[in-house]
Amino acid sequence: MDKVMDKVMGNVRLQGVTKTYPNGTLAVHPTSIDIADGELIVLVGPSGCGKSTLLRMVAGLEEITGGTVTIGGRAVNDLDPAERDIAMVFQNYALYPHMTVYKNMAYGLKNRGKPKAEIDEKVRAAAEMLNLTDYLDRKPSQLSGGQRQRVAMGRAIVREPALFLFDEPLSNLDAKLRNQMRVEIRALQRRIGVTSIYVTHDQVEAMTMADRIVVLNGGRIEQIGTPAEIYRQPASTFVASFMGAPPMNLVPADYSGNGSVRVCGTELPLGRSADYRGAVSLGVRPEDVDLATGAGDGPALPFDLHLVEELGAHRLLHGKVHAHPFVVNVHNATALSEGRMYLRVAPGNLHMFAPDSGRRI
Amino acid sequence: MADMTDTRAIPTAATPRRRRLRWGAIADHAVLIAGAFVMMAPLLMLLQMSTVPDAEILKSGPSLRIGDQFGPNLEKAMFGSMSFSGENTGLSMFRNSLILGLGFALGKIVISMMAAYAIVYFRLRFATLAFWLIFTTLLLPLEVRILPSYEVTQKLGLLNSYGGLIIPLIASATATFFFRQYFMSVPEELVEAARIDGAGPVKFFIDILVPLSKTMIAAIFIIMFVYGWNQYLWPTMIVTDEGKMTLVQGIRQITQGLEGNHIPEFGRSNLLAILAVLPPVLVVIFFQSWFVKGLTESDK
């Protein structure tokens, strides 16, 4: 592998990066992210959240209207994309249709005036790594979607950049291939150890691939953290409902500062105290509940079952807690009963959010 | 025919439909063959007449006999001249027409591709305005502006030169329009990928855009070559030197050969006429599959 990639230091720093369009729209609010060398950062968010704009500003395809982008200690704001020492994988692959796989991969090196022998060695090594050796003489139109994706990867790899940029690279593939490529890309990135920024709207991709996730909404960062942090400690109701399928249940509740939270008459122990009084949104992950058919001892939320979704290993139970929609995810062996059941939630699995700002309490 | 249809009518219930289809195909071909015959017959007649002595045509008109005069007639057509100076032989006119047709087509392709490239890919302030200005020149064909064009050409000292034949007509709104539409359909990501790959504007144009547009180029080439080859008015204005005359201009001479007191030179005139038709036909035949591709589908 060392033959393919001579490692370049690729720590990336975004400081107050802003995008304002000429018509005055603020597409990306001042954003700061520090990316360590070799880290894979996933930018995730709904469409229009500014994740692609942010990526394109790092790539140099979009002008940076405020702040600084530093790649490997070098400010790149005023550099051309070609001079930024980056490589990008596009959603539609963006392969040159009239060139063979070999030429597609070699084109960037050729433009840099690298000697033929060196180009050849690198292209063949990359093709080897990506199982493309047999396809080097084919045109992109003769390849399957997954193979095209690999060629796009190969084109990025041979450049030996300090930073990989992925712009929703898997969204054109079918579900099965997407899962396979997800693993391939992750494994490849680990092996090569190149710093990467990966944009996606798919929270499964974000969770499975990222070292750290940046959740964006409306041009602002909602939260930066490891997948576990994002999932276990969502910083806002937006993150809580965006990450995870089905999303976190949110139920209106009251917190009066006595170590328990009241949901429509049921006092649930919180196990901690917070510097907050008043109405809250109480968040519970669908899988973080114990389901019981009888009321039993201790505080429990009444759950009225309406619909069972069979997922194979698991079942999704759609129902209501005090007239608020609530989803429970249980193992398929869990006993169910008609009508009312009871939910118990461990104190650590209760999340409280301020109802107005949506921030975590 | 009758028993053929009978035997076919027996086997299955589906036959009537199939039989009708066959009849349809036969009818289609009959129409096509008739059309082709109507188009080809005059040319074949010309060819036949060029093989028999001129006197025989005068006596008995066109016939089906293939004579032995083709060689001498061809020689007369290619190397003989009927003009005063003797410079405009069939061969020299053919050469001039070829230069005009090729220069015209290639020049238009180069200029209009670059114009379309500038309009589509560069953030020019008045790109749209510029495009529509170019586009409105479609409303001003050569015939409308022929006097000022002539004056400019004359002042540039380009009369009686290939440059004068080609350059004043080299801008093409049609081709610019076609290339613009084509470039606009090229995915934006391709441009971005090329930028990241370190291809500057010129490299992107030559390495990516030109090869991508090759079917389009072929289509435009055919249209423009035929258009240039068939120019009559402009060469007549610009060229007075007989050595620079084109074949289409020379048609006057072809008819000249048919006038006067002596026996009209049918054979030679006919061959010159065929010569004037042949290259456009060959170009179309050679490029026709590309032509259809270029105007209908995109290879992206």
Automatic annotation (TrEMBL), chain B:
Pfam families noted in UniProt: BPD_transp_1
One Gene Ontology CC term in the entry: plasma membrane
Highest taxon listed in the record's lineage: Bacteria
Predominant place of localization: membrane
Signal sequence segment: none
A single BP term in Gene Ontology: transmembrane transport
Subcellular location: Cell inner membrane; Cell membrane
UniProt keyword annotation of rRNA-binding present: no
CDD domains: TM_PBP2 (cd06261)
Keywords for this protein: Cell inner membrane, Cell membrane, Membrane, Transmembrane, Transmembrane helix, Transport
ABC transmembrane type-1 domain mapped to chain residues: 94-287
Family matches, as InterPro entries: MetI-like, MetI-like_sf
Gene3D superfamilies attached to this UniProt entry: MetI-like
Protein's membrane topology: Multi-pass membrane protein
Entry's family note: Belongs to the binding-protein-dependent transport system permease family.
Quaternary organization: The complex is composed of two ATP-binding proteins (UgpC), two transmembrane proteins (UgpA and UgpE) and a solute-binding protein (UgpB).
Function: Part of the ABC transporter complex UgpBAEC involved in sn-glycerol-3-phosphate (G3P) import. Probably responsible for the translocation of the substrate across the membrane.
Name of the protein described by the UniProt record: sn-glycerol-3-phosphate transport system permease protein UgpE
Organism annotation: Marinibacterium profundimaris
